[in-house]
Amino acid sequence: MARFFFEWVETGLRLQRESLQRRKRDVRGTVLIYDLKGVTRQQLDLRGIRVLASFIRTGQQHYPENLDRAIVINAPALFAVPWSIIQRVVSQRTRHRVTVRRDGGRDALLELMSPEHLDRVLRSVDTELGPGTSHPAA
Questions:
Q1: Helices (H) and strands (E) in the chain, counts
Q2: pTM, full prediction
């Protein structure tokens, strides 16, 4: 799991550098969107919470300035307990960059991108999920 995390973050950093070279402007950092639609109580057990907390701690230790924002959308009510535990292991700075939404978070996402860009992103997600699948933020 740790190897996947490091490869994922390093790929994001490479894409940021490429964007900087193409556009000649700095990229603010990474925006992470976690869609928890369909997450069950079993997936939010102590082991799952530990894995998520480990990823967050690793990100804070090795990539402290890379996280611009994290938006958790479609968070079920039962996510409140794991989130309260996770908040204890992350820095205040990181906590302030995280938004947890019970809905599809369209208004929060529109603060970060234009409606056209958001619609393109959601269409690409729908394409990856399969035909007829609609994304809850749409």
A1: 6, 3
A2: 0.74
